[in-house]
Design goal:
The protein is mainly alpha-helical and 124 residues long. It is 50% helix and 10% strand. Pfam families: HxlR (PF01638).
């Protein structure tokens, strides 16, 4: 493994670009936000993140675990019991992703008003 003093997200070969892509992907950010305050099981995550398929959730969890942002604890029980929690780095980045999503939610009416082609949508 190469030793980096700092990443360069603008460099095509820098691993920071791949991690940024995972964190800001459609599902990666939502998984990080969902795990922000508690440890959850797979089914709990799937219920929390409306619209995510089992396959996509499994892939997303695997990628974020590979990036060192999520810990997976398998209890080796039948039926399977697996918990997911954030690592210290995962907690830090989750807080930042949450801050961004919170800003978007708070400013949604203004953002939609600025989008000329935005169709009216129900906000929950």
């Amino acid at each position: 493994m190469r030793n980096f003093s700092r990443g360069d997200v603008f460099a095509a070969a820098c691993p920071s670009r791949q991690i940024l892509q995972h964190v800001t992907s459609r599902w990666g950010g939502l998984v990080l936000i969902a795990l922000r305050e508690e440890t959850l099981r797979f089914a709990q995550l799937r219920r929390r993140i409306d619209g995510i398929s089992e396959r996509m959730l499994a892939q997303t969890l695997q990628v974020l675990e590979g990036d060192g942002l999520i810990l997976r604890k398998d209890y080796g029980e039948v039926p399977p019991r697996v918990d997911y929690t954030l690592t210290p780095a995962g907690r830090e980045i989750s807080a930042r992703v949450f801050a961004l999503s919170d800003w978007i939610e708070k400013n949604l009416p203004e953002l939609l008003a600025l989008t000329p082609d935005a169709a009216p949508q129900t906000v929950q």
